[in-house]
Write a structure and sequence with these properties.
Elements (H helix, E strand, L loop, with lengths): L8 E2 L2 E2 H31 L4 H30 L1 H18 L6 H18 L15 H30 L1 H21 L10 H13 L3 H25 L5 H8 L1 E2 L16 H22 L6 H25 L5 E2 H28 L6 H23 L2 H4 L1 H21 L1 H11 L9
Parallel strand pairs: 3-4
Antiparallel strand pairs: 1-2
Organism: Luteimonas galliterrae
Family: Belongs to the major facilitator superfamily. Proton-dependent oligopeptide transporter (POT/PTR) (TC 2.A.17) family.
Membrane topology: Multi-pass membrane protein
């Protein structure tokens, strides 16, 4: 493995971490900005029915997280991570600008999905190369990265959503494209702070040696654990990915968004609450987990993920009760705000924790591919979310939210059962063959 770049730190972390999260911050800005408008654009501008719009939304978000499987392999084997990021980001920016034309709508969605396939796994797979193996900062790197990129998610609905609602959908999509170009600019000018890509000939020669050092049983155990977690997170995503789908529809028609003075909260603004809570809550959780770790009480990765799924279930149960209490009217917007607080608290226990787990257990030379496998869970979950979303207009809001809670509870129960196998895989990977605590 290449040594970490020898540069000074920014804010106590390698400079490359700032470059990576600023790059992805702008990519997230473009993606979430476009996503905040997508369902409204289809139903209000293209005049598609709710069920058709939900299916297209689910297929699009699924494609965004399916293409990284192929993109990760292309990055690891041929392009290298830097060229994959630049090519992928350029194609994504083109797709966002093509959204300005209604006749190119489906082609624009395809371009964004294809570009994302190269971009998404190639960026976070560079994080580990910024740190030496014994660097104590490695443990918090993915949490800090997750906070950084969610700044883009916070700004996206406020900028792109507001432009789309008030001045026209195409203005919002154009702002998303500009955000993608900003991310590419940061990446290109900050490339000197990132770990260099190994020459592909050297990498090809090194892979058999690295693989030969892995005991077959160790590698098999790790891959089986990662597969089981990915499938379970796929189920969890079926409920979680309703945020940009049916939750957005409920924000439009199921809540009272009026404030004093006759001002009505734009429906897209609620999409900013999730990334805002990520930024606010992450330092609190990281500090809490650090204190637990010092006392030897920090929950294992699968335990955290299970608690996160149950937290998301609690958020949906709250909405089920609220919507059931006002079946013919509109609930206060405060309930939707509280939903995002509880949902995000659960999210922070599962999504960044899972990403870090996949990065730690990734075989050498296949890091981008392994990170892509984590995003494959989002692909399957998005397909499931789109299919589940078609039930929205059939069974009603209260029963639908109760169903989403049930889906998250099942995922939480399975993740809890995966705790021991996950800890055994981590211990084996670290070279520790001792017993796993019960």
């Amino acid at each position: 493995m290449n040594a970490p770049p020898a540069h000074g730190d920014w804010f106590g972390q390698p400079r490359g971490l700032s470059v990576l999260f600023l790059t992805q911050m702008w990519e997230i800005f473009s993606y979430y900005g476009m996503r905040a408008l997508l369902v409204y654009y289809m139903t209000k501008q293209l005049l598609l029915g709710q069920q058709q719009a939900s299916l297209i939304y689910g297929l699009y978000t699924a494609a965004v997280y399916f293409t990284p499987i192929l993109g990760g392999v292309i990055s690891d084997r041929w392009l290298g991570r830097r060229r994959a990021v630049i090519i992928g980001g350029t194609v994504m920016a083109l797709g966002h600008f093509l959204m300005a034309s209604e006749s190119l709508f489906y082609f624009a969605l395809l371009a964004i999905a294809l570009g994302n396939g190269l971009f998404l796994p190639s960026l976070p797979s560079q994080i580990d190369g910024l740190y030496a193996k014994d660097d104590p900062r490695r443990g918090s790197a993915y949490n800090l990265y997750y906070v950084g990129i969610n700044l883009g998610g916070l700004l996206a609905p406020l900028v792109c959503g507001t432009l789309g609602e008030l001045y026209g959908w195409h203005w919002g999509f154009g702002a998303a494209g500009i955000g993608m170009l900003a991310g590419l600019t940061v990446y290109v000018f900050g490339a000197r702070y990132l770990p260099p890509d190994a020459a592909r000939a050297t990498k090809a020669a090194a892979l058999p040696r690295a693989a030969s050092k892995l005991r077959g049983q160790d590698l098999k155990q790790r891959l089986l654990v990662l597969l089981a977690i990915a499938l379970t997170v796929m189920l969890f995503r079926g409920a979680y990915e309703q945020v940009g789908n049916t939750i957005a529809l409920w924000a439009d028609s199921g809540i009272d968004r009026r404030l004093a003075g006759g001002f009505s909260i734009p429906m897209t603004w609620f999409q900013a609450l999730n990334p805002l809570m990520v930024v606010v809550l992450t330092p609190l959780f990281v500090a809490h987990w650090t204190r637990q770790a010092r006392k030897g009480r920090e929950p294992a990765a699968a335990q955290k993920m299970s608690m996160g799924a149950l937290g998301v279930a609690a958020a949906y149960l709250m909405l089920a009760a609220v919507s059931g209490a006002v079946p013919q009217g509109q609930a206060s917007w405060l309930w939707l705000a509280l939903f995002f607080v509880v949902l995000t608290a659960g999210e922070l226990f599962i999504l960044p924790v899972g990403l870090g787990l996949f990065a730690r257990l990734a075989p050498e030379g296949h890091r981008a591919t392994t990170i892509a496998a984590w995003f494959f869970a989002t692909f399957g979950g998005s397909l499931l979310a789109g299919a589940l979303g078609t039930l929205w207009s059939v069974i009603g809001a209260s029963y639908f939210f109760a169903l989403m809670a049930a889906v998250a509870i099942v995922a939480g129960a399975v993740l809890w059962r995966l705790d021991r196998p996950t800890r055994r895989a981590e211990a084996a990977h670290a070279g520790n063959s001792g017993a796993v605590a019960p």
